[in-house]
């Protein structure tokens, strides 16, 4: 079996923003999978999942605008802009089509990409995510983003850890938890605020009915950031989609149960 190698690349978007992306490839793949990380994470969020997916699928993951080693221009940000950034990255990588997957924020971007670039989307993986955060989303996300400005990223980590990971996982995998915290606190507060505002405005509910590609929806049983009810709502709206609820897992399932996420993503049947 050929070994998968991880390589780092950079692309420029239509407005000149530099976007970092990673590719995991053994050079023998027959499928291509794109993954978009959750809020305040980076492309490396997907490392364990990509390795578990194995050599039959090339995996590409980006640092979204405002995150990681990508540029952090002033806002406003939008899921449409993030989807356009992703299209620029695929152009740079020479990928015409791919399965598009995303976790939490990344799922919002994946839905938007599938709507804007249907001809480039051959499958969809929606993980711990939603098409809309609800009636009070604008106010809720503004409040959360402002906390990063007024208190700093460090002050938010206690809340984030319990939101991200189940109690047992936090107790037994402190290295993974603390690495996620390190990535979180390294975020630029202003870029974080603009991304929170983006999520507050995001409403892709009407786009769900137009999704016709194979779609796997995944959510942790204990996820209270994007609860099971949100996943069920997407499942009902996307004809032919499959829904998996992962027992005892919380919000960042690609970190908590990467092998399970990899297995489900491999089940996306694109023929």
TrEMBL record:
Transmembrane segments: none annotated. The keyword Hydrolase applies. One of its GO terms (molecular function) is hydrolase activity. InterPro entries: AB_hydrolase (IPR050471), AB_hydrolase_1 (IPR000073), AB_hydrolase_fold (IPR029058). Pfam families: Abhydrolase_6 (PF12697). Residues 33-263 form the AB hydrolase-1 domain. Keywords: Hydrolase. This is Putative b-ketoadipate enol-lactone hydrolase protein. It comes from uncultured bacterium EIL20A02.
